[in-house]
Amino acid sequence: MNLKLNPLKIEPNDPFKNDLLGRKEEVLNLSLLAANVNSPAVIAIDSRWGTGKTTFIRLWEQHLKTEKLPSLYFNAWETDFSDEPLVSFLGEMNEGLKSLIGVNQQASDAWEKAKAAGKQIAKRGIPALVKIGTAGIIDADKIIEDEIMKVTGSLAGDALDNYLQQKKAIFEFHEALTKFINQSADGRPLVIFVDELDRCRPNYAIELLERIKHLFSTKGLVFVLALDKKQLGHSIQAVYGNGIDSNGYLRRFIDFEYQLKEPDKANYINSLFSSLELDKFFAPRKQYSELQYDQEHLKNVFVMLATGLQLSLREIEQLLASINIAIRTAKENEYIFPALLVFLVISKHFNFDAYERYIADEGEEFELIDYLYKIVSAKKRIDNFECALVEGLLIAAKNNQFKKSESPRLLKHKEILKNEQLDFNERNYSEIVCNVVSRPSARGGMDLKRLKDRINWLSRFEISSASE
């Protein structure tokens, strides 16, 4: 029994073997772009948090390794405890480049020179030089003036000397880095993946981005940045003020932007069902006529809601893992009403106040039904069995224990059924709702308190996702 999702296992010799999102074509196309682009170049993989950016670039990195193409991976978030991004970056590159350098003494010597120059740049620490490329957005002359004015008149000459020495160190760094690339990569571009940039402290993220552009702008280098452009824009504004054009600022550093393809959520959810072994859980329940469609209802309602709410991959993983835990304590022949359970779990997560009002003893179903209608548009809802099923169960759960008269929503559906002039699909939808409310399992076995307790039990768990 699997209670949680395991991280994607990327096979060294077949990176796409366990890929649940069909990313192979995207990786192959971007690999061709990286191999043929006029370097230096910076490619941004732009996608919101939780949409699988880390998994994507890990697949891409392994594909390059399989093809014997030089690449490195750098997780910016894991190093943002450092005060100087350049030091962290050079340190991580140093580890990753060992296998690439191998026994090539010339490449090794060139890299040592580059590191030495990089240390001098980081040590001196005047930010003006690495900000020169942003002139037009940021007043570079003002930055230099401010830095020099920090010292008294007697030290102004030292500050200027420091500035000129740093400029020399940057030139030496570029020269050594270019020599290293020529010696180690055999004319092929070195692809450096930078992950989690948008999760870093604002200052750290921006300084790292600036250093990548200004210090590593060397022929033969291609950077791939995995980021959420909107979130990174907030970091830029946090550093330089709300008045800055964050998109214009980023265009100074990024040559190509690529939006990850929206994955097929139904296929992804099907894969997660298999990973969590939910088919094994539901198999013995199929011998009971009232429970035989539980698995189908759970899956179809989850797909409907995940699509309507445009859930990220991470949200899908976490919510499905929660639902998996919630149902695992149920007996083989116990009613769990999976369609309603799924909707209530998601409602509690995204519309907590409406959920709380619904499960209260004197609560009504109207607000959550309206929320369901917002998730599933009228055009899609009218011939959607799963939507009618959830609506019927929302009515039945309240009618079962707390109502002395029929729900106004149910009466409305009964009126629709009587009106033969209405569209067939509309009348059919109402018929499903009425049938769900009137079926024996809804009338006699609907225990909202037990469902509420099962859902509340989940609040004791903290569930992490398997991947980014």
List keywords for this structure.
468 residues; mainly alpha; Rossmann fold; 2 domains; 23 helices; 6% strand; elongated
Descriptive notes:
The chain is elongated. Helix 8 links the parallel strand 3 and strand 4 (221-227). It has a 5-stranded parallel beta sheet, sandwiched between helices. The chain folds into 2 domains: 24-259, 3-Layer(aba) Sandwich (Rossmann fold); 265-458, no CATH class. By secondary structure, the protein is mostly helical. The chain is 60% helix and 6% strand. It has helices at 24-36, 53-66, 85-101, 105-124, 128-131, 140-149, 156-184, 202-215, 229-240, 246-251, 265-275, 278-282, 294-308, 313-328, 338-350, 352-359, 366-375, 378-381, 385-401, 408-418, 424-438, 440-444, 448-458; strands at 41-46, 71-75, 190-195, 221-227, 256-259. The model is unreliable at 126-144 and 151-155 (pLDDT under 50). 35% of the residues are buried. The chain has 23 helices and 5 strands. Helix 4 (105-124) runs antiparallel to helix 7 (156-184) and helix 19 (385-401) packs parallel to helix 21.
